[in-house]
Each structure stands twice: as structure tokens, then as C-alpha cells.
Amino acid sequence: MRRSEFLRAVDGEFGGRAVSILQDLHLPAIGMTSTFALEAGIAPRDIWLALCAEMDVPQERWHGAGRIDRARR
């Protein structure tokens, strides 16, 4: 997962709360917020999975999130 895909996935899943969640929600699995984790160089996919687990996102929405559907373009 690329950083751009991560950001699209977060926006798609959390909408208007996305920025607040990235900046304020401490992810115990990573030990910091998503914003700090990105700055620290932690893989966006690892952050996404930790965020999904922490926010109780249904597992069927964890994989493939943030990707652009090339067939629709």
C-alpha cells in the first residue's frame, strides 16, 4: 500500500473525521498516532491494518482499500 492509497482509504472509510483520526487517535499496536507513524517511516499498510483493528472496521473493508479501480477510469 502506498501513502496515497493509505490516505484515500482513510478518507473513504472515515470521511470528515479522517484528519482528526490520523492526528489524534493513538494506535496501541504501533505505539503512536497514524501521522507520527507515517513520519517515522512505518509502512502505510501496517498503519492501515492497525487503524482498522482499533476502529472496528469490518475485515471485508481492510484489503484493497484506497486503490483506484483502473477499469472505471
Polypeptide structure, described:
This protein is mostly helical and 73 residues long. The chain has one domain (3-65). It contains four helices and two strands, in the order ααββαα. The protein has helices at residues 3-14, 18-24, 34-39, 44-54, and strands spanning 26-27, 32-33. A two-stranded antiparallel sheet has the order 1-2. β1 (26-27) and β2 form a beta hairpin. The longest helix is centred in the first third of the chain and has 12 residues, at 3-14. The two termini are 20 Å apart.
Order of helices and strands: HHEEHH
- Give the biggest sheet: 2 strands, antiparallel
Radius of gyration of CA atoms, rounded to a whole number: 12 Å
Unreliably modeled segments: none
Order of the strands making up the biggest sheet:
1-2
Number of helices: 4
Average pLDDT works out at: 91
Derived from helix and strand composition plus strand pairing, the structural class reads mainly alpha
Strands, count: 2
Proportion of beta-strand residues: 5-15%
Overall form: globular
Q: Can you give the helix content as a percent range?
A: 40-55%
Q: Count up the domains.
A: 1
**Distance separating the two termini:** 20 Å
Protein name: DUF3046 domain-containing protein
Organism: Microbacterium mitrae
Pfam family, one: DUF3046
